[in-house]
Each structure stands twice: as structure tokens, then as C-alpha cells.
TrEMBL record:
Signal peptide: none annotated. It is a single-pass type I membrane protein. It is found in: Membrane. Its main location: membrane. One of its GO terms (biological process) is cell-matrix adhesion. Keywords: Glycoprotein, Integrin, Membrane. Residues 129-208 form the Integrin alpha second immunoglobulin-like domain. GO terms for molecular function: integrin binding. This is Uncharacterized protein.
Length: 222
């Protein structure tokens, strides 16, 4: 909820304000857009609003609600979203009186509290990452080739030319602590090898590796 105060009496049936809300203000490419327009997906809403007198409190009030939509494939949910809310008075510029004319009534010239006219506030994602809102993960990755081993302590794998048409790589990843957002796994391989996909058995167990992308010498999994 945001509030703005205006000194002066309402003009006519209410006091007009120009209202602007900007989402993800500090990002060149915003991660969210504002409803109710879900077609253009704009991160900014501008409109005119009218403050009307609340008989219970005697104050000028206007409430606006907006639905914020997160864009598809948004990976950064750790950085808070900065919103900027701005108000400006919607009124005619006062005309200076001619010499000898009475001064215009200041009741029709309200003053906007500039300290609240522009306000930036932040919204964070619910990440389930402890009281400090910092995700402290502990990732463990174990990888092995399904090939005969050789060398001291069986620490090397042996690939006989012409003996295998496929080389299988088994990767097991665990996270022992809090959520690991934006985690990526990279696998470098010789240019003579090409990635052809995951095994049928692994597909039935999990869809964890659906994000593999072959970049020639490196596989990337998001």
C-alpha cells in the first residue's frame, strides 16, 4: 500500500492526479509486466486517478490494485524487484492576475507532498532460504564414464578405438542445504564427440537433465 498526501481542498467532485507505476525499474529488460493487459506485457502503467473524499475519515483517498506477472524463463528470482510509484497533480497552471485584480483563492491550488510523490519500494520472492533470505546451498556432483578403468587407483578411463559407438557419462548431483537457484552444470568434451541424448532409463527416472544444450565442445544444463 502506498499513500500520498495533498494539502488543499478537493476541486469539484474530487482531486485529479496523474499516476505512474514502473516495475523492475533498475533492469534494462524487466522480469515482470503489469496487468490487466497481458497482450502488450508492459512493465509500466500510467493513468489518471481521482481522489475522492472518504466520509469516515475526512481524507481524500484512491486505491489501485495491480497484478504483477513474471515472464516465462525468468531465472533470477534472488534479486528483489524495484517498483517506482509516481504522482503528479492534474490541474491547470495558475494564471498570474493582472495589476489590481484580486489574488486567486489558494483553495483551488492544492500542494502535493513531494517527499511521497516519488517512491521506490522493493518486492522479494519467497525463496524458502532461511531467516537471512540468502540461499546457502551445498552442491555435490559426482561423474563417471561407463568405460573400463585403468592407471593407478583406477582413476582413468580407457576408450578403445572402434570398440564403442557410444560413450556413456553418469552424473549424480545432490544439494545438501538450501535451494540452489540459477545452478548450472557444464560438461566439456572433445570436438570429435557429439551429444546424442540421455538414456531411456534416465528419462523414466527423472526429467532433471531436460535442459541440455550442445555447444560443440561443451554441454550446458540449466
Amino acid at each position: 500500500e502506498s499513500r500520498v498526501s495533498v494539502e488543499g481542498r478537493p476541486v469539484g467532485d474530487g482531486l485529479g492526479l496523474l499516476y505512474k507505476l514502473e516495475a523492475d525499474k533498475k533492469r534494462k529488460l524487466p522480469r515482470v509486466y503489469l496487468g490487466p493487459d497481458t497482450e502488450t506485457r508492459l512493465p509500466t502503467v500510467e493513468m489518471g486517478v481521482v481522489l475522492t473524499l472518504d466520509p469516515r475519515t475526512g481524507q481524500l483517498r484512491n486505491c489501485q490494485e495491480h497484478t504483477v506477472y513474471i515472464k516465462e524463463n525468468t531465472r533470477d528470482i534472488q534479486s528483489p524487484i524495484a517498483f517506482k510509484r509516481s504522482y503528479s497533480l492534474e490541474q491547470e497552471e495558475p494564471v498570474p492576475p493582472s495589476e489590481g485584480d484580486p489574488l486567486p483563492s489558494v483553495d483551488n491550488l492544492p500542494i502535493l507532498n513531494q517527499q511521497e510523490a516519488d517512491k521506490v519500494f522493493y518486492v522479494t520472492f519467497l525463496k524458502d532460504c532461511g531467516d537471512n533470505d540468502i540461499c546457502e546451498s551445498e552442491l555435490s556432483v559426482v561423474a563417471s564414464l561407463l568405460l573400463p578403468t585403468t592407471g593407478e587407483n583406477k582413476s582413468s578411463w580407457e576408450l578403445m578405438l572402434g570398440q564403442h559407438t557410444e560413450v556413456r557419462l553418469n552424473i549424480t548431483a545432490h544439494n545438501l542445504q538450501e535451494s540452489a537457484y540459477e545452478a548450472q552444470l557444464f560438461v566439456s568434451h572433445p570436438v570429435s564427440l557429439s551429444y546424442i541424448g540421455q538414456s531411456k532409463a534416465q528419462e523414466k527416472k527423472s526429467n532433471m537433465w531436460d535442459g541440455w544444450e550442445d555447444e560443440g565442445k561443451q554441454l550446458t544444463c540449466n
